[in-house]
Design brief:
Layout: H1 3-13, H2 17-36, H3 43-52, H4 67-74, H5 79-87, H6 101-122, H7 133-141, H8 151-161, H9 165-177
């Protein structure tokens, strides 16, 4: 599947700017981690997984990570993409466990990119470029801040990767700095 084909599929099921932007943020974050973790030859594939991970969320929020499998299979999408995208709903909407490092990254950064983005918007610069770990950690501890971003999922993702939470947050900030203001 090409990036263009993935975008066409995504925009068939997603129209809201927020969802399209989130998909692109996760896509770029995934590509960054592919490069950083020695999977550079698969960076485009990792990006497509990031782009499509919430394919069904806008139209089928009650069937998230379930309906997208059906949609993708009907379209003949690679089973690796289907498994990877569905696995980010592990223990939430599906029992498909993230196995590959790529799937663990997706699981960990999906919620985290949203939380970091919310912290950045609150800053005078409205940017991740000058965002520090301590600022994210302060807001992270406030359960009412970006309440839709599951701290439990973020922490489970860090654990799956064998990383400390601070490392996951720092590396994700670094990823966002490569393509966000």
């Amino acid at each position: 599947m090409t990036r263009e084909e993935a975008w066409d599929l995504l925009t068939e099921f997603n129209k809201e700017e927020f969802h399209l932007e989130h998909a692109q943020i996760v896509e770029q974050t995934m590509k960054y981690f592919a490069e950083q973790l020695g999977y550079g030859e698969e960076a485009e594939f990792w990006g497509i997984v990031g782009l499509l991970h919430d394919l069904d969320f806008e139209m089928y929020p009650e069937e998230h990570c379930v309906k997208e499998q059906e949609i993708m299979r009907e379209r003949g999408v690679d089973e690796r993409i289907i498994h990877a995208t569905a696995s980010h709903g592990y223990n939430i909407t599906v029992d498909i466990k993230p196995e590959h490092e790529m799937e663990k990254i997706l699981y960990a950064v999906d919620e985290l990119t949203g939380l970091i983005g919310a912290v950045a918007i609150m800053r005078p610069s409205k940017s991740v470029q000058d965002l520090e770990l301590k600022s994210v950690k302060k807001k992270y501890k406030s359960k009412n801040f970006a309440a839709g971003c599951s701290r439990e999922v973020i922490e489970n993702g860090a654990e799956m990767l064998g990383w400390e939470l601070d490392e996951l947050i720092t590396r994700t900030i670094e990823a966002l700095r490569t393509f966000r203001d």
